[in-house]
Amino acid sequence: xxxxxxxxxxxxxxxxxxxxxxxxxxxxxxxxxxxxxxxxxxxxxxxxxxxxxxxxxxxxxxxxxxxxxxxxxxxxxxxxxxxxxxxxxxxxxxxxxxxxxxxxxxxxxxxxxxxxxxxxxxxxxxxxxxxxxxxxxxxxxxxxxxxxxxxxxxxxxxxxxxxxxxxxxxxxxxxxxxxxxxxxxxxxxxxxxxxxxxxxxxxxxxxxxxxxxxxxxxxxxxxxxxxxxxxxxxxxxxxxxxxxxxxxxxxxxxxxxxxxxxxxxxxxxxxxxxxxxxxxxxxxxxxxxxxxxxxxxxxxxxxxxxxxxxxxxxxxxxxxxxxxxxxxxxxxxxxxxxxxxxxxxxxxxxxxx
Length: 353
Description:
alpha+beta; Arc Repressor Mutant, subunit A; Beta-Lactamase; five-stranded antiparallel beta sheet
């Protein structure tokens, strides 16, 4: 909970908090403004509709609810939904049968590509919203084993096993010919000292070692750094990317049925720079993130909420997955689905110990 919400929590008494929660539950359920009589029936409190109207007037004054029309009931505002998510919402665990089904779909005996696509489809299908997942770069995956084979014309074939499920090959050009024995020694050094570390950090540490102890480094170490620098260097193709699943699910929501509004949302999905910037913010947070409306920083998502959770390999966050849907969503259930899916994906991607 952020400090900006604490004063409101102190002002709201238990009754007001309960009625705000009940109003949000009703609104999420049917999408219509909630009148005092409907709220009284749903809340099951022995208070008059006049008392409820007074509480609603207070919540309205605080900017937590609003009336879309003069004679209509009230709906929660972004501010009201934020207070609800931060301080009132109780996230419920998933049913055991559903959890078991998710574990079966995300079993570890699959390659990285299949697991990522399955996780994205899973959250989209379970929430009936758009699923999104960032794709980890090669360098974000842990190095499990590396071998080198000498080729002609000062070339070397590097064979890398990452995450114990994926083998990657790369041909590099070096300044001189290397014997098979030299390449075995270099591979042994890397395997003994850096197994389990992500590829980017291995390259960075080797270069730092060379720079910090240049005069004391022997020829083998210099050769190791030269080869590792090329093999572990990000290639031009390794740009950040993400995948989207089920964006047509958004068509079924009344709040987003406006054709122009949907078109703007779909156009934003195609704008990789904006979407990757948002996903990068989520990765850096290293926790479940809930953006409500304009909090995402994208005007086109003003009527949407975004829920993301990070997934990790060997304790390091390598990506995030989440859902995008209307602000009128079942936050408790969706947060659970996103969180569990991210944990299961990370577990499946982790190497077996």
